[in-house]
Amino acid sequence: MRGNADAHELIAPGSLAGVLELIAGAPGEWTPIAGGTEIMVAHAAGRLREKKLVSLWGLGELRFIEVSGDSIAIGAGTTFRDLRSNGAVQIDAPLLAKAATWIGSIANQSRATIGGNLVNGSPAADSSPALLVYDAEVELISIRGKRRIPYSSFHTGYKRNAMAADELLYAVRVPLRFERHKQYLRKVGTRRAMAISKVALAGTALLEGEAVREIRIAAASLAPFPTRLYQTEGTLQGRPLGSIAIREAQDALLEEAKPIDDIRSTAAYRSRVAANLLGEFLNELLAAEAHR
Amino acid sequence: MSERLIPSNPSISFVVNGEKRTVNAPGMKRLLDVLREDLHLTGTKEGCGEGECGSCSVRMNGELVNSCLVPALQAEGATIETVEGLGEAGALHPIQKAFLECGGAQCGICTPGMLMATAQLLAVNPHPTIGEIREGLAGNLCRCTGFKRIFDSVIAVAAGEMNAEMEHGTGGAHAG
Question: In this complex, how many residue pairs, one in chain A and one in chain B, have their CB atoms less than 8 Å apart?
Fold first, then answer.
Protein backbone atom coordinates (compact mmCIF):
# COMPACT_ATOMS: atom_id res chain seq x y z
CA MET A 1 0.00 0.00 0.00
CA ARG A 2 1.67 3.19 -1.22
CA GLY A 3 -1.22 5.46 -0.27
CA ASN A 4 -1.63 7.01 3.16
CA ALA A 5 -5.00 6.44 4.79
CA ASP A 6 -4.33 9.32 7.21
CA ALA A 7 -4.08 11.78 4.34
CA HIS A 8 -7.70 11.37 3.34
CA GLU A 9 -10.97 12.08 5.07
CA LEU A 10 -13.94 9.79 4.43
CA ILE A 11 -17.32 10.55 5.88
CA ALA A 12 -20.69 8.84 5.58
CA PRO A 13 -23.64 11.18 6.18
CA GLY A 14 -25.94 8.14 6.08
CA SER A 15 -28.67 9.63 3.90
CA LEU A 16 -28.96 10.94 0.37
CA ALA A 17 -30.22 14.30 1.68
CA GLY A 18 -27.17 14.51 3.95
CA VAL A 19 -24.79 13.86 1.04
CA LEU A 20 -26.55 16.41 -1.19
CA GLU A 21 -26.39 19.10 1.49
CA LEU A 22 -22.73 18.40 2.11
CA ILE A 23 -21.74 18.71 -1.54
CA ALA A 24 -23.99 21.74 -2.09
CA GLY A 25 -22.26 23.47 0.82
CA ALA A 26 -18.82 23.05 -0.75
CA PRO A 27 -19.25 22.35 -4.48
CA GLY A 28 -16.41 20.34 -5.96
CA GLU A 29 -14.71 19.79 -2.63
CA TRP A 30 -16.08 16.33 -1.84
CA THR A 31 -15.59 13.31 -4.07
CA PRO A 32 -18.31 10.68 -3.86
CA ILE A 33 -17.18 7.07 -3.39
CA ALA A 34 -19.63 4.22 -3.91
CA GLY A 35 -18.18 0.70 -4.16
CA GLY A 36 -14.62 2.01 -4.37
CA THR A 37 -13.48 -0.30 -7.16
CA GLU A 38 -11.79 2.63 -8.94
CA ILE A 39 -10.94 5.03 -6.13
CA MET A 40 -9.43 2.39 -3.82
CA VAL A 41 -7.14 1.18 -6.61
CA ALA A 42 -5.81 4.72 -7.03
CA HIS A 43 -5.57 5.03 -3.23
CA ALA A 44 -3.49 1.87 -2.87
CA ALA A 45 -1.17 3.05 -5.62
CA GLY A 46 -0.65 6.38 -3.85
CA ARG A 47 -2.18 8.38 -6.69
CA LEU A 48 -5.52 9.37 -5.15
CA ARG A 49 -5.46 13.14 -5.33
CA GLU A 50 -8.88 13.72 -3.74
CA LYS A 51 -8.48 14.41 -0.03
CA LYS A 52 -12.12 14.59 1.04
CA LEU A 53 -14.44 11.76 0.19
CA VAL A 54 -18.09 11.17 0.94
CA SER A 55 -19.46 7.63 1.01
CA LEU A 56 -22.54 6.67 -1.00
CA TRP A 57 -22.21 2.99 -0.06
CA GLY A 58 -25.21 1.56 1.76
CA LEU A 59 -27.66 4.33 0.80
CA GLY A 60 -30.87 2.40 0.13
CA GLU A 61 -32.28 5.48 -1.62
CA LEU A 62 -29.80 4.92 -4.45
CA ARG A 63 -30.07 1.13 -4.66
CA PHE A 64 -33.27 0.15 -6.46
CA ILE A 65 -34.59 -1.35 -9.68
CA GLU A 66 -38.16 -0.28 -10.45
CA VAL A 67 -40.23 -1.03 -13.51
CA SER A 68 -42.76 1.68 -14.21
CA GLY A 69 -45.09 1.99 -17.22
CA ASP A 70 -42.61 2.73 -19.95
CA SER A 71 -39.18 2.38 -18.42
CA ILE A 72 -37.03 0.54 -15.96
CA ALA A 73 -35.39 2.83 -13.42
CA ILE A 74 -32.08 1.71 -11.94
CA GLY A 75 -30.72 3.55 -8.92
CA ALA A 76 -27.13 4.74 -9.27
CA GLY A 77 -26.12 2.67 -6.24
CA THR A 78 -27.30 -0.57 -7.83
CA THR A 79 -24.43 -3.05 -7.99
CA PHE A 80 -23.66 -5.19 -11.00
CA ARG A 81 -24.59 -8.23 -8.89
CA ASP A 82 -28.02 -6.66 -8.37
CA LEU A 83 -28.30 -5.94 -12.09
CA ARG A 84 -27.29 -9.34 -13.43
CA SER A 85 -29.58 -11.21 -11.05
CA ASN A 86 -32.66 -9.00 -11.55
CA GLY A 87 -35.43 -10.64 -13.58
CA ALA A 88 -36.75 -7.38 -15.05
CA VAL A 89 -33.28 -6.34 -16.23
CA GLN A 90 -32.68 -9.79 -17.72
CA ILE A 91 -35.92 -9.58 -19.69
CA ASP A 92 -36.24 -5.88 -20.51
CA ALA A 93 -32.61 -4.85 -20.84
CA PRO A 94 -30.78 -8.10 -21.63
CA LEU A 95 -27.70 -6.35 -22.98
CA LEU A 96 -27.25 -4.57 -19.66
CA ALA A 97 -27.66 -7.84 -17.74
CA LYS A 98 -25.07 -9.41 -20.04
CA ALA A 99 -22.61 -6.54 -19.58
CA ALA A 100 -23.04 -6.83 -15.80
CA THR A 101 -21.86 -10.46 -15.88
CA TRP A 102 -18.53 -9.58 -17.46
CA ILE A 103 -17.53 -6.62 -15.32
CA GLY A 104 -14.47 -7.62 -13.30
CA SER A 105 -15.15 -10.64 -11.13
CA ILE A 106 -17.89 -11.65 -8.69
CA ALA A 107 -16.08 -9.70 -5.96
CA ASN A 108 -15.98 -6.57 -8.12
CA GLN A 109 -19.59 -7.00 -9.20
CA SER A 110 -20.77 -7.09 -5.60
CA ARG A 111 -19.25 -3.65 -4.96
CA ALA A 112 -19.13 -1.81 -8.29
CA THR A 113 -22.22 0.28 -9.03
CA ILE A 114 -23.76 1.40 -12.30
CA GLY A 115 -23.53 5.00 -11.12
CA GLY A 116 -19.84 4.63 -10.40
CA ASN A 117 -19.28 3.05 -13.80
CA LEU A 118 -20.86 6.04 -15.58
CA VAL A 119 -19.51 8.85 -13.42
CA ASN A 120 -16.00 7.41 -13.53
CA GLY A 121 -16.38 7.87 -17.27
CA SER A 122 -13.86 5.38 -18.58
CA PRO A 123 -13.91 5.19 -22.39
CA ALA A 124 -14.08 1.42 -21.86
CA ALA A 125 -17.00 1.46 -19.38
CA ASP A 126 -18.80 -1.88 -19.63
CA SER A 127 -22.37 -0.72 -19.08
CA SER A 128 -22.21 2.22 -21.49
CA PRO A 129 -22.62 0.68 -24.97
CA ALA A 130 -25.80 -1.13 -23.86
CA LEU A 131 -27.26 2.02 -22.30
CA LEU A 132 -26.52 4.01 -25.46
CA VAL A 133 -28.30 1.60 -27.81
CA TYR A 134 -31.29 1.51 -25.45
CA ASP A 135 -31.59 5.33 -25.60
CA ALA A 136 -31.24 5.46 -21.81
CA GLU A 137 -31.71 8.64 -19.82
CA VAL A 138 -29.80 9.61 -16.70
CA GLU A 139 -31.42 11.40 -13.80
CA LEU A 140 -29.29 13.85 -11.82
CA ILE A 141 -30.08 15.08 -8.34
CA SER A 142 -29.05 18.00 -6.14
CA ILE A 143 -30.66 20.06 -3.39
CA ARG A 144 -32.14 22.05 -6.28
CA GLY A 145 -34.11 19.02 -7.44
CA LYS A 146 -33.87 16.36 -10.14
CA ARG A 147 -33.37 16.66 -13.87
CA ARG A 148 -33.12 14.16 -16.69
CA ILE A 149 -30.85 14.21 -19.72
CA PRO A 150 -30.22 11.64 -22.44
CA TYR A 151 -27.32 9.38 -21.48
CA SER A 152 -25.88 10.09 -24.94
CA SER A 153 -25.18 13.68 -23.80
CA PHE A 154 -23.86 12.77 -20.32
CA HIS A 155 -20.21 12.36 -21.28
CA THR A 156 -18.71 15.57 -22.61
CA GLY A 157 -15.04 14.64 -22.88
CA TYR A 158 -12.43 12.29 -21.47
CA LYS A 159 -13.54 11.74 -17.85
CA ARG A 160 -15.81 14.78 -18.10
CA ASN A 161 -19.57 14.84 -17.78
CA ALA A 162 -22.58 17.12 -17.76
CA MET A 163 -23.11 17.09 -13.98
CA ALA A 164 -22.87 20.34 -12.02
CA ALA A 165 -20.54 20.41 -9.02
CA ASP A 166 -23.43 19.97 -6.58
CA GLU A 167 -25.09 17.10 -8.46
CA LEU A 168 -25.02 13.34 -8.04
CA LEU A 169 -26.14 10.70 -10.49
CA TYR A 170 -29.45 9.46 -9.09
CA ALA A 171 -30.72 6.88 -11.57
CA VAL A 172 -30.54 5.48 -15.08
CA ARG A 173 -33.77 4.96 -17.01
CA VAL A 174 -33.99 2.39 -19.79
CA PRO A 175 -37.09 2.71 -22.00
CA LEU A 176 -39.09 -0.48 -22.44
CA ARG A 177 -39.49 -0.38 -26.20
CA PHE A 178 -36.78 -2.64 -27.52
CA GLU A 179 -38.55 -5.95 -27.05
CA ARG A 180 -38.94 -6.51 -30.80
CA HIS A 181 -35.49 -5.23 -31.68
CA LYS A 182 -32.61 -7.50 -32.51
CA GLN A 183 -29.97 -6.81 -29.92
CA TYR A 184 -26.21 -7.31 -29.96
CA LEU A 185 -23.35 -6.81 -27.51
CA ARG A 186 -19.85 -8.14 -27.61
CA LYS A 187 -16.73 -7.21 -25.71
CA VAL A 188 -13.21 -8.07 -26.80
CA GLY A 189 -10.66 -8.18 -24.00
CA THR A 190 -7.53 -10.10 -23.11
CA ARG A 191 -9.37 -12.74 -21.12
CA ARG A 192 -12.96 -13.31 -20.13
CA ALA A 193 -12.79 -12.34 -16.49
CA MET A 194 -11.26 -9.18 -15.08
CA ALA A 195 -10.08 -7.76 -18.41
CA ILE A 196 -10.90 -4.20 -19.36
CA SER A 197 -12.22 -3.95 -22.91
CA LYS A 198 -9.93 -3.44 -25.85
CA VAL A 199 -13.16 -2.62 -27.63
CA ALA A 200 -16.87 -3.35 -27.22
CA LEU A 201 -19.78 -2.86 -29.59
CA ALA A 202 -23.53 -2.84 -29.00
CA GLY A 203 -26.46 -2.60 -31.37
CA THR A 204 -30.24 -2.60 -31.46
CA ALA A 205 -32.12 -2.79 -34.77
CA LEU A 206 -35.54 -3.23 -36.22
CA LEU A 207 -35.90 -4.48 -39.78
CA GLU A 208 -38.87 -4.20 -42.09
CA GLY A 209 -38.39 -6.91 -44.64
CA GLU A 210 -34.74 -6.42 -45.56
CA ALA A 211 -34.85 -2.68 -44.92
CA VAL A 212 -33.35 -1.21 -41.78
CA ARG A 213 -36.17 0.69 -40.12
CA GLU A 214 -34.32 1.62 -36.94
CA ILE A 215 -30.74 1.05 -35.87
CA ARG A 216 -28.54 2.16 -33.02
CA ILE A 217 -24.86 1.30 -32.72
CA ALA A 218 -22.56 2.26 -29.86
CA ALA A 219 -19.03 1.42 -28.84
CA ALA A 220 -16.60 1.56 -25.96
CA SER A 221 -12.92 2.40 -26.44
CA LEU A 222 -13.32 3.98 -29.88
CA ALA A 223 -13.36 7.58 -28.58
CA PRO A 224 -12.49 9.56 -25.41
CA PHE A 225 -15.82 8.36 -23.96
CA PRO A 226 -18.39 5.70 -24.89
CA THR A 227 -20.29 6.94 -27.94
CA ARG A 228 -23.09 6.25 -30.40
CA LEU A 229 -21.81 5.84 -33.95
CA TYR A 230 -24.30 8.14 -35.67
CA GLN A 231 -22.53 8.32 -39.05
CA THR A 232 -22.30 4.55 -39.24
CA GLU A 233 -25.98 4.27 -38.31
CA GLY A 234 -26.78 6.85 -41.00
CA THR A 235 -25.37 4.68 -43.79
CA LEU A 236 -27.78 1.91 -42.81
CA GLN A 237 -30.95 3.81 -41.97
CA GLY A 238 -33.76 2.93 -44.36
CA ARG A 239 -31.52 0.81 -46.59
CA PRO A 240 -31.94 -2.82 -47.55
CA LEU A 241 -29.35 -4.84 -45.68
CA GLY A 242 -26.94 -6.76 -47.91
CA SER A 243 -23.25 -7.35 -48.36
CA ILE A 244 -22.66 -3.95 -49.97
CA ALA A 245 -24.53 -2.04 -47.25
CA ILE A 246 -22.62 -3.98 -44.59
CA ARG A 247 -19.26 -3.18 -46.18
CA GLU A 248 -20.16 0.50 -46.46
CA ALA A 249 -21.25 0.59 -42.85
CA GLN A 250 -17.94 -0.97 -41.82
CA ASP A 251 -16.08 1.65 -43.86
CA ALA A 252 -18.13 4.38 -42.17
CA LEU A 253 -17.22 2.95 -38.76
CA LEU A 254 -13.51 2.97 -39.65
CA GLU A 255 -13.94 6.62 -40.62
CA GLU A 256 -15.94 7.55 -37.53
CA ALA A 257 -13.89 5.67 -34.91
CA LYS A 258 -11.24 7.71 -33.11
CA PRO A 259 -9.47 5.14 -30.95
CA ILE A 260 -6.03 5.54 -29.41
CA ASP A 261 -2.99 3.37 -28.76
CA ASP A 262 -2.64 2.55 -25.07
CA ILE A 263 -1.45 -0.22 -22.75
CA ARG A 264 -4.41 -2.46 -23.64
CA SER A 265 -4.40 -2.28 -27.40
CA THR A 266 -3.64 -0.24 -30.51
CA ALA A 267 -5.88 2.13 -32.43
CA ALA A 268 -5.56 0.05 -35.58
CA TYR A 269 -6.56 -3.17 -33.81
CA ARG A 270 -9.51 -1.50 -32.08
CA SER A 271 -10.87 -0.08 -35.34
CA ARG A 272 -10.46 -3.35 -37.23
CA VAL A 273 -12.08 -5.43 -34.49
CA ALA A 274 -14.95 -2.95 -34.09
CA ALA A 275 -15.62 -3.16 -37.82
CA ASN A 276 -15.57 -6.95 -37.58
CA LEU A 277 -18.02 -6.85 -34.66
CA LEU A 278 -20.30 -4.59 -36.68
CA GLY A 279 -20.09 -7.08 -39.53
CA GLU A 280 -21.05 -9.87 -37.15
CA PHE A 281 -24.04 -7.92 -35.84
CA LEU A 282 -25.30 -6.97 -39.31
CA ASN A 283 -24.79 -10.47 -40.70
CA GLU A 284 -26.75 -11.86 -37.73
CA LEU A 285 -29.56 -9.44 -38.61
CA LEU A 286 -29.49 -10.57 -42.21
CA ALA A 287 -29.49 -14.25 -41.27
CA ALA A 288 -32.38 -13.75 -38.84
CA GLU A 289 -34.36 -11.98 -41.56
CA ALA A 290 -33.69 -14.79 -44.04
CA HIS A 291 -35.08 -17.35 -41.58
CA ARG A 292 -38.32 -15.53 -40.95
CA MET B 1 3.42 9.08 6.08
CA SER B 2 3.35 12.27 8.15
CA GLU B 3 0.45 13.95 6.39
CA ARG B 4 -2.68 13.81 8.54
CA LEU B 5 -5.98 15.33 7.46
CA ILE B 6 -8.26 14.40 10.33
CA PRO B 7 -7.53 14.99 14.01
CA SER B 8 -8.76 11.62 15.25
CA ASN B 9 -9.85 8.31 13.81
CA PRO B 10 -13.51 7.35 13.78
CA SER B 11 -14.65 4.38 15.79
CA ILE B 12 -15.79 1.66 13.41
CA SER B 13 -17.73 -1.41 14.55
CA PHE B 14 -18.58 -4.58 12.69
CA VAL B 15 -19.03 -8.27 13.29
CA VAL B 16 -16.13 -10.49 12.23
CA ASN B 17 -16.60 -14.24 12.30
CA GLY B 18 -19.52 -13.86 14.68
CA GLU B 19 -17.75 -11.53 17.11
CA LYS B 20 -18.43 -7.81 17.46
CA ARG B 21 -15.24 -5.80 17.01
CA THR B 22 -14.57 -2.07 17.24
CA VAL B 23 -11.48 -0.36 15.87
CA ASN B 24 -10.31 3.22 15.72
CA ALA B 25 -8.96 3.60 12.22
CA PRO B 26 -8.88 6.14 9.41
CA GLY B 27 -12.01 5.79 7.29
CA MET B 28 -9.84 5.24 4.23
CA LYS B 29 -7.76 2.47 5.80
CA ARG B 30 -8.34 -0.66 3.76
CA LEU B 31 -10.49 -3.35 5.38
CA LEU B 32 -7.63 -5.72 4.47
CA ASP B 33 -5.23 -3.74 6.68
CA VAL B 34 -7.77 -3.42 9.50
CA LEU B 35 -8.20 -7.20 9.50
CA ARG B 36 -4.49 -7.93 9.40
CA GLU B 37 -3.02 -5.10 11.50
CA ASP B 38 -5.75 -4.09 13.95
CA LEU B 39 -7.43 -7.46 14.43
CA HIS B 40 -4.40 -9.70 13.71
CA LEU B 41 -6.49 -11.84 11.36
CA THR B 42 -3.61 -12.54 9.02
CA GLY B 43 -5.31 -15.39 7.18
CA THR B 44 -6.52 -12.85 4.63
CA LYS B 45 -3.63 -12.18 2.24
CA GLU B 46 -2.64 -9.24 0.10
CA GLY B 47 -1.73 -10.13 -3.46
CA CYS B 48 -2.00 -7.35 -6.01
CA GLY B 49 -3.65 -4.72 -3.84
CA GLU B 50 -5.78 -3.54 -6.74
CA GLY B 51 -8.75 -5.87 -6.88
CA GLU B 52 -7.40 -8.11 -9.64
CA CYS B 53 -6.17 -11.23 -7.85
CA GLY B 54 -8.74 -12.08 -5.18
CA SER B 55 -6.20 -13.09 -2.50
CA CYS B 56 -7.85 -10.71 -0.03
CA SER B 57 -11.40 -12.00 -0.68
CA VAL B 58 -13.68 -12.00 2.34
CA ARG B 59 -17.46 -12.20 2.64
CA MET B 60 -19.21 -8.99 3.66
CA ASN B 61 -22.95 -9.07 4.30
CA GLY B 62 -23.19 -12.33 2.38
CA GLU B 63 -21.32 -11.07 -0.70
CA LEU B 64 -17.77 -11.73 -1.83
CA VAL B 65 -15.59 -8.60 -1.76
CA ASN B 66 -11.94 -7.75 -2.26
CA SER B 67 -11.01 -6.40 1.18
CA CYS B 68 -8.21 -4.33 -0.39
CA LEU B 69 -10.89 -2.21 -2.10
CA VAL B 70 -13.16 -1.67 0.91
CA PRO B 71 -12.48 1.49 2.95
CA ALA B 72 -12.85 0.66 6.64
CA LEU B 73 -15.66 3.15 7.16
CA GLN B 74 -17.82 1.30 4.62
CA ALA B 75 -17.56 -1.82 6.78
CA GLU B 76 -19.37 -0.03 9.63
CA GLY B 77 -22.21 -2.27 10.80
CA ALA B 78 -21.28 -5.05 8.37
CA THR B 79 -21.07 -8.78 8.98
CA ILE B 80 -17.72 -10.06 7.79
CA GLU B 81 -16.45 -13.59 7.39
CA THR B 82 -12.77 -14.30 6.89
CA VAL B 83 -10.96 -17.58 6.38
CA GLU B 84 -10.44 -17.77 10.16
CA GLY B 85 -14.21 -18.11 10.53
CA LEU B 86 -14.43 -21.00 8.11
CA GLY B 87 -12.82 -23.66 10.27
CA GLU B 88 -9.78 -24.28 12.41
CA ALA B 89 -7.07 -26.88 12.84
CA GLY B 90 -8.72 -30.12 13.92
CA ALA B 91 -12.15 -28.91 12.81
CA LEU B 92 -11.71 -28.00 9.19
CA HIS B 93 -14.61 -26.83 7.09
CA PRO B 94 -15.54 -29.26 4.28
CA ILE B 95 -14.20 -26.73 1.75
CA GLN B 96 -10.82 -26.68 3.51
CA LYS B 97 -10.79 -30.49 3.69
CA ALA B 98 -11.53 -30.70 -0.02
CA PHE B 99 -8.70 -28.31 -0.92
CA LEU B 100 -6.31 -30.37 1.22
CA GLU B 101 -7.36 -33.72 -0.13
CA CYS B 102 -7.59 -32.71 -3.79
CA GLY B 103 -4.32 -30.77 -3.82
CA GLY B 104 -6.12 -27.45 -4.22
CA ALA B 105 -3.58 -25.62 -2.07
CA GLN B 106 0.00 -25.20 -3.22
CA CYS B 107 2.03 -22.16 -2.12
CA GLY B 108 -0.95 -20.93 -0.14
CA ILE B 109 -1.12 -17.23 -0.97
CA CYS B 110 -4.29 -17.51 -3.05
CA THR B 111 -5.82 -20.20 -0.85
CA PRO B 112 -7.74 -18.12 1.72
CA GLY B 113 -9.30 -16.12 -1.12
CA MET B 114 -10.08 -19.29 -3.07
CA LEU B 115 -11.75 -20.78 0.01
CA MET B 116 -13.87 -17.68 0.57
CA ALA B 117 -14.83 -17.44 -3.11
CA THR B 118 -15.82 -21.11 -2.95
CA ALA B 119 -17.84 -20.50 0.21
CA GLN B 120 -19.63 -17.65 -1.56
CA LEU B 121 -20.27 -19.69 -4.70
CA LEU B 122 -21.69 -22.65 -2.79
CA ALA B 123 -23.82 -20.41 -0.55
CA VAL B 124 -25.53 -19.01 -3.64
CA ASN B 125 -25.35 -22.11 -5.81
CA PRO B 126 -24.79 -25.39 -3.91
CA HIS B 127 -24.46 -27.50 -7.07
CA PRO B 128 -22.54 -25.44 -9.60
CA THR B 129 -21.58 -26.65 -13.07
CA ILE B 130 -17.91 -26.53 -14.02
CA GLY B 131 -18.67 -23.34 -15.97
CA GLU B 132 -20.22 -21.77 -12.90
CA ILE B 133 -17.23 -22.83 -10.79
CA ARG B 134 -14.87 -21.25 -13.29
CA GLU B 135 -16.88 -18.04 -13.25
CA GLY B 136 -17.22 -18.02 -9.46
CA LEU B 137 -13.45 -18.27 -9.05
CA ALA B 138 -12.48 -16.18 -12.09
CA GLY B 139 -11.46 -13.26 -9.88
CA ASN B 140 -9.05 -15.42 -7.89
CA LEU B 141 -5.66 -16.01 -9.43
CA CYS B 142 -3.36 -18.90 -8.54
CA ARG B 143 0.20 -18.12 -9.55
CA CYS B 144 1.09 -21.79 -9.08
CA THR B 145 -1.51 -22.31 -11.84
CA GLY B 146 -3.18 -25.06 -9.82
CA PHE B 147 -6.61 -24.31 -11.23
CA LYS B 148 -7.48 -27.87 -12.24
CA ARG B 149 -7.04 -29.16 -8.69
CA ILE B 150 -8.78 -26.13 -7.26
CA PHE B 151 -11.81 -26.80 -9.48
CA ASP B 152 -11.62 -30.49 -8.53
CA SER B 153 -11.74 -29.42 -4.87
CA VAL B 154 -14.88 -27.37 -5.43
CA ILE B 155 -16.49 -30.22 -7.36
CA ALA B 156 -15.68 -32.60 -4.49
CA VAL B 157 -17.16 -30.40 -1.82
CA ALA B 158 -20.25 -29.60 -3.91
CA ALA B 159 -20.77 -33.33 -4.46
CA GLY B 160 -20.87 -33.73 -0.68
CA GLU B 161 -17.83 -36.01 -0.58
CA MET B 162 -16.25 -34.09 2.25
CA ASN B 163 -19.45 -33.99 4.28
CA ALA B 164 -19.87 -37.73 3.90
CA GLU B 165 -16.32 -38.30 5.04
CA MET B 166 -16.80 -36.05 8.02
CA GLU B 167 -19.91 -37.92 9.01
CA HIS B 168 -18.18 -41.25 8.68
CA GLY B 169 -15.10 -39.99 10.45
CA THR B 170 -12.72 -41.19 7.74
CA GLY B 171 -11.13 -37.93 6.85
CA GLY B 172 -7.68 -39.43 6.28
CA ALA B 173 -5.43 -38.57 3.38
CA HIS B 174 -6.35 -41.20 0.86
CA ALA B 175 -6.17 -39.01 -2.20
CA GLY B 176 -3.09 -39.00 -4.20
Answer: 121
Residues of chain A with C-beta less than 8 angstroms from the C-beta of B1: 4, 6
Indicate the residue of B30, B51, B117 with minimum beta-carbon distance to A1: B30
Contacts of B6 in chain A (CB under 8 A): 6, 9
Domains of chain B, by residue range, sit at 11-85, 94-168
Distance CA A127, CA A113 (A): 10
Give the ipTM: 0.93
Q: Structure pTM?
A: 0.93
Q: How far, in Å, are A126, A151, B143 from residue A219 at the CA level?
A: 10, 14, 34
* Contact residues, chain B, for A33 at CB < 8 Å: 71
- Are A71 and B87 in contact by the 8 Å Cβ rule? The answer is no
| CATH of region A5-55 | 3.30.43
List the single residue in A with minimal CA-CA distance to B55: A107
Domain locations along chain A: 5-55, 60-175, 182-290
Q: Each residue of A239-258: pLDDT tens digit? A: 999 999 999 999 999 999 99
Name the minimum distance, in Å, from the CA of B87 to any CA of chain A. Answer: 22
Between the CA atoms of B55, B58, B59 and B64, what dihedral angle is there, to the nearest 10 degrees?
Answer: -30
